[in-house]
Design a protein that fits this description.
single chain; 96 residues; alpha+beta; 3 helices
Length: 96
């Protein structure tokens, strides 16, 4: 989880469930790791996937742009992954 202003409660809810010891659909209590940037978050996801574990991340449209280089690596290695993207308007200056 990258500590930014939340656009949805998904990441915060996942963190609360992990702290409470609530199991997921696979019967496992997920581990939630707080990262310092979107690049760090997607690099953590990539590293986790390479080890054979399941991983996901929560981001908004702006953060998704910063994750694109690692997304190409994840896709190129055919690793299964889910990116939870909150729909938010993309600022034009973010593309520059």
């Amino acid at each position: 989880i990258f500590p930014i202003t939340l656009t949805t409660p998904l990441g915060e809810t996942a963190d609360q469930w992990a702290v409470a010891g609530k199991t997921n659909s696979f019967g496992v209590v997920p581990k939630v790791q707080q990262m310092q940037s979107e690049a760090g978050a997607v690099a953590g996801v990539h590293g986790t996937l390479v080890t054979g574990a399941l991983s996901t991340t929560f981001t908004a449209s702006q953060g998704l742009l910063l994750m694109i280089p690692n997304m190409y690596k994840i896709a190129g290695e055919l690793l299964p992954c889910v990116f939870h993207v909150a729909a938010r308007a993309l600022a034009g200056q973010a593309l520059a």
